[in-house]
Amino acid sequence: MRYSHTLQQFSILSFFVTIWTVQSVPPQPPIRCDQTGCTVSNAYGTWPDRKTCHAANVTYPTTEEDLRKVVAYAAEHNLKVKTVTKFSHTIPKLACPSGSDALLISTSKYNSVIEIEPELLTVTADSGVSLRELIEKVEGAGFSIGTSPYWEGVSIGGLISTGSHGSSWSGRGGSVHDHVVGISLVVPANQSEGFAKVVRLEEGRDDTLLNAVKVSLGVLGVISKVKLSIEKAFKRSVTYNFTSDVALEDIFMEHGKKYEFGDITWYPSRKTAVYRYDIRAPVNVSGNGVNDFLGFQSNPILISKGVRALEKGFESSKNENGKCTTADTTLAYKKLIGNGLKNSGLIFTGYPVIGRQGKIQTSGSCLYSSSIRIDVACAWDPRYNGLFFYETTAIFPVSRFRDFLLDVKKLRDMKPERLCGIDIYNGIFIRFIKGSKAYLGQTEDSVVIDFNYYRADDELTPRLNQDVMEEMEQMAFVKHGAKPHWGKNRKVGFFGVKQKIGPNFDKFLEVKNKLDPKKMFSSEWSDEILLGTEASKYDGCALEGNCVCSEERHCNPSKGYFCKEGLVYTQARVCRFSPAQVIVM
């Protein structure tokens, strides 16, 4: 889930509303059922293919034995199964099962156990425990969790399944799965074993299996419990430096090495880089700061709708200047309020902001319900027609990242205005993660980028400057060999992923075939992501990132969008607006 989720073109008025409204309407549950069956969606209300995901039924286990019995029933009756968390923030369709009689297992009520072992510096939690619940329990006992994703609307089982991460090249690194020292997994079994069993894996004893299960995409079984390493409690000291992006390509590596939790937000159209100086501080240092990231705060529903309407207007009128003005305003506002950092109480008063690890490492105040107001929510809540966007997340080997930055700068310098569309969200967000032993993780120290951009209400509606976003996407995944984040990205980000993973992919498949030989937990959608296969192309398929265009019809010729080569990466094939060529259908 995600630091760069939301468009942040908020007015000063909305800032003061947010100060007094720190809670909101909670997100809707991802599973909804009626007499005809169930549907499951992600938190954005729309899957990448825009098709509804169906299942016959859902069950809500509360104990590990409940979980084992459910899997046993499904195995005995040859049912397809998918696990769904309380939050369902994964963008790809990994939670969608195959078959009209498929069963959903929700872990939303499997969240009662959190056990801390102080002498071993570990904590074990039921897989449905939310990240915030886990952090509060650990911090309350005088410890800290070394890393987490920046968005707290995730469960512990869900976040490790897709490789969620923070930012750090220090210690065990920024990926949460690399802090996992044990997992309990419920898998199908033969009749003599009761059709299902619990497999308990420990670091140093069961590494072959554990390295597969740490990042499993939910296709190996149902995670029951997760054991994480923890540390003695500590604080963090954070300062944002808003400055020029000159020499960013030469600075990023030293920045990642120097600051234990550092990151960089790059606004290429504004030629601005925001360096996060984020270091560990002793727990006895003064400071009770909080990270209440602007994009994850509760926002008045009318403002979210208005922001969406404004961006739709820019899109329909092809108003680059409007987007650039908004990007300027957004960036100035973030600088004014420290991007949501608060020294104490309700406001930001200056740097550094010092606070406990549990209050700095993650945020998501829009998740929590309020009896005070009912007209505020997370800005992307699909019930209110607010923000609607794509998210591209690419993981680069360190050695390949500098050249990517230089390519984007070349693309930017041709016409900076074309990149304002990502800068009104969160620009290009840069984080650092260590090499991992997880088979579906990164094999070497890496740099991760995220960027968000407008998604149209209709799948055949082209986007302003979409060719630039598509060229950046292909630069990352094709030219510079980046791997996709499993929980984000459009379908094109996964093409060829099997080859990028290399020998570890076959190791993962060996474990998959051992733990789930009948593919009970697989579906055509999870197979499509895991195998990185490209489906048949169709009219307009490139508009939503479901294919790379190779013919004009894969774009939208009737609206002036044709398949063209990239401007910098000429091997890219992108949908570009060419008004002189408009074809009337």
UniProtKB/TrEMBL annotation:
Listed pathway(s): Cofactor biosynthesis; L-ascorbate biosynthesis
UniProt xrefs under Pfam families: ALO, FAD_binding_4, GULLO2-like_3rd
Chemical reaction(s) catalysed: L-gulono-1,4-lactone + O2 = L-ascorbate + H2O2 + H(+)
One record GO biological process: L-ascorbic acid biosynthetic process
GO CC list: membrane
Residue ranges constituting the FAD-binding PCMH-type domain according to the UniProt record: 51-233
InterPro entries (alphabetical): ALO_C, FAD-bd_PCMH, FAD-linked_Oxidoreductases_BP, GULLO2-like_C, GULO_Plant, Oxid_FAD_bind_N
Co-factor requirement: FAD
Signal peptide (from-to): 1-24
Broadest EC class assigned to this enzyme: oxidoreductase
EC number assigned by the record: 1.1.3.8
Record keywords: Ascorbate biosynthesis, FAD, Flavoprotein, Oxidoreductase, Signal
GO MF entries: D-arabinono-1,4-lactone oxidase activity; FAD binding; L-gulonolactone oxidase activity
Family according to the record: Belongs to the oxygen-dependent FAD-linked oxidoreductase family.
Name of this protein: L-gulonolactone oxidase
